[in-house]
Amino acid sequence: MTLDTPLRLAAPVLSLLLLAPGLTACTGDEVEDDTSNGDAEPQWPMAESEVEREVDPQLTADETASIADDQLALALDLYHVLREGDLSGKSFSVSSYSISAAFGMLYGGTVGQAREQMESTLHFSLGDERQHVAHNWLDKQLAARNIEGVTDPDFMAEPVVLKTANGVWLDKTQRDGLVPDYLDLLARHYGTGIRIADFQGNAEGERDGINLWVSHRTNELIPELIPDDVITPDTTMVLVNALYLKAPWDQQFTEGATSKAPFTKLDGSTVEVDLMHNPVMSGLYAEGEDFSAFAAPLRGSALEVVFVVPDDFTSFEAALDPSTVANMLSSLEYTVVDTYVPRFELESDVPLTAVLRDDLGMLAPFVDSSSFDDIVPQLGVITDVLHKTVIKVDEKGTEAAAATAIVIGEDGGDYEEPSAVFRADKPFILMIRDAPTQSVLFFGRVLEP
């Protein structure tokens, strides 16, 4: 492959992050309470199964491909609805991993039409027990991405940290109706039990406690997942997934090489941004008919940040579908690239209630109070789906977090000449994915750093 044409990231870009090995691997509900900021989590009473978590879940090759394809399809479904709706004209990202994991727990106790709609809308193509095995398998794969830091004077390296956590809270008035099989499923596949909360008597205090739980598991990147007035005395259950990643670049950018440079916005105007520069960064690069792409590896090389710069961002993103993204990624080839990408922080508060219920057709879980009878009979309906993501990219590496809450209640080495130049100095699309499993963890866009 001849790579002579400079790749400019000065217009809309597709950015893909691939998660790499990390220092601390925590999955399920194993994260210890972090009191470094002086705040200790409440100690909720627990309803737990004696079943242990499956430590070596296995998938067939077809199932492995399916879960990656399904999460990408969900990410794109959400992306298109959001870019045309509530987040039109804005930068944002979503984590289909986090959304799928949170709903996977709920799916385990969902029945009837709600179950069928959940399978269709969320692309749970494996279905039933195999869907839960796949979620557990992916968590175990991500845990293996962690890499310890190195403090040898001759070689210093920051760790790769990747943590996932699942949590479920149930109002104490519902405890006696809990279906034992549901507790077994949560323990076996999601590594969690159920915390017994007092939503009726202390809704605001429980909201604060759940937010603190999320904050500790996202290194305080997401301090308030659930806003005021979402949890009420009518709330019966809250299910949460949290994801946290921090990893250094495999080959870092030098801070002294960062300089102010123009970033071309969608309307053609420019804004000055901090553009990082590494003249000899090894990674995966491709040029298509209407885009250029570069995958910058994080330490360990299993995780990458992939930036995609289309010639025409608007038409390119409108045409994005799973096959387009898959073909784009498969066209990447290893080379050395003279790389320019912006330093940026992207925080997204993504409204998902109406998106899932109205735009994507998953109505039954929001209106049928018998939808979750395999958890607790007449538990209620989904009243809110909350989702937040944070992505930070700088000279040292990448830090990212995602959290999803579903609220249920009543109502409702050697120097080598670079073979290409890559500039991310215009809008770009952004993904974070795990390369070995091909699972998309984040998907979004940056219109202005």
TrEMBL record:
Gene Ontology, cellular component aspect: extracellular space
Chain intervals for the UniProt region annotation (Disordered): 28-49
InterPro entries hit by this protein: Serpin_CS, Serpin_dom, Serpin_fam, Serpin_sf, Serpin_sf_1, Serpin_sf_2
Residues of the signal peptide: 1-25
Cytoplasm among keywords: no
GO molecular function, one term: serine-type endopeptidase inhibitor activity
Domain Serpin per the UniProt entry, residue ranges: 76-449
The keyword Transcription regulation belongs to this UniProt entry's keyword annotation: no
Family note: Belongs to the serpin family.
Protein's recorded name: Serpin (Serine protease inhibitor)
Record organism: Enhygromyxa salina
